[in-house]
Amino acid sequence: MADDRNPKVARPSLSRQLLPAVHGLLARPLSSYYLLIASSGLLLLIGLTMVFSATSVKAYRDNGNAFSAIANQSLYALLGLVVFWICQRLPTRTLRDIGKYILGAAIVLLAILDLLGALESVGVLSSPKIGPVHANLLWLYFGPIGLQPAELAKLGMVLWGADVIARKGPALGHWRELSRPLFPVIGLLFVLVGYNDLGTMLVLLSLIVGLLWAAGVRLRVFAALGVLGMAGIGLLIAAASGGAGSGSTDAENYRLARLTNFLQPLEKCDLQDNCYQLIQSRSAIFEGGWFGVGLGKGVLKWNWLPEASNDFIFGVVAEELGVVGCSVVLALFSVLAYTGFRIARRSSDPFRRLAATAITTWLVAQAVINIGGVTGMLPITGLPLPFISAGGSALVVTLAAIGMLASFARAEPDASKALNARPPARWVRLVWAPLPPLPRNGSRLRKTAGHLPARGIASSPHHGDGRGGGRGRRKQCCGRSCSPEEAPVDTSIRCSPSPMP
């Protein structure tokens, strides 16, 4: 009423009204969990929609059924949701224990995949097949069942690497601790993955950098890791001339061609050969404009844009949904990145903090590399876009990682206290997720003590006058005068009544 009577009184702007509301929502105990579920769920829904749009016409031409491709992708999405549910329910100790087994299985499968390809390239085998085991570039088939071992290696490296680093603790600053067993396993994994898939090796490198950064490793370690990584990339590019990946000894080095085509202007590039993918993806972005041609109305996906349902599906998004649709996808990935790092920052357990950082770095780096390749800002590496691209192994492993992040979000100290204070119904805990463990008071007190000033204690309503400690200043310790050093560290301790004389 005061504003209506006095028009000179200015009402608060919309931004001043909106920012406190957003801050209040983010301050809620389970805000990280809800942001994670909302962003990943919307990305999964957009991915299924765009896969159907990119594959329906081609599937109808090949199989007479426009829903054949989306049916397979929906089946993988359903399997991924089951894995998400399982990972959300697993305790931290179980995740730490199974990490070495997942990584070991991935290394064995990668070795079999590379061995079959190498035996074919030297002429020992006429085709990369031994009995029911068959290799096809990045895929390894056991009869009718196929999977990508490199996707499994990402998940295994997250769990095993976070467990190893968390166990080493402050000793990780010494080179000998990094060399036993972290760096040898990382080097072996880089060779096995990079032989066939340079893009996935770059994602693994970013994942390792995220792990070491969250662990507080010195900067010179990152410099050494960068030099070794560049040397390894150079060796893998040279190996493509000898048949590594999809290369062959009698053809041009395709890895080197992708790098050189990215560095030179399009006028000097062969538009019908080496730069064909980049030209078609940029044409899709140009045709889409601001608002796109309409969902399902794009035409470049009809065998004009290579790998329209997989590596270049962001081009289909740009053509059919325009800049607005691309902005929505980028905004959802930004929310996912913010939520993942928020979960890592709020986690009190070192393993959860390291694993959350590694998972977030992995998903964000893969999205950046894919979108950068489609738009021409980065070299093309053949990586799928998380949640959006078609593919079974990548989607299942990605949803498993999101399930672990959801478990970590529910285990945040504030979220755990809120869930245990007002637990949901028993059937909800049985069907969805159990209650997370309560945070340990001892670890929280040690953390609080580690952030106190060097002299004195933080202001507290139970100690002194609230002006902080200092030299010569006296505090009240349960009715008697004492120095700041004699005051108790735990400011939550209350003085008990003095005994009667």
Can you characterise this structure?
With 501 residues, the chain is mainly alpha-helical. The chain is built from 17 helices and 6 strands. Strands 1-2-3-4 form a 4-stranded antiparallel β-sheet, with helices on one face. The chain has a two-stranded antiparallel ribbon with strand order 5-6. The chain is globular and about 65 Å long. The model is unreliable at 442-501 (pLDDT under 50).
Summarize the structure.
61% of the residues lie in helices and 4% in strands. It is mostly helical and 501 residues long.
Features of this protein?
4% strand, 6 strands, 17 helices, 501 residues, single chain, mainly alpha, 61% helix, four-stranded antiparallel beta sheet
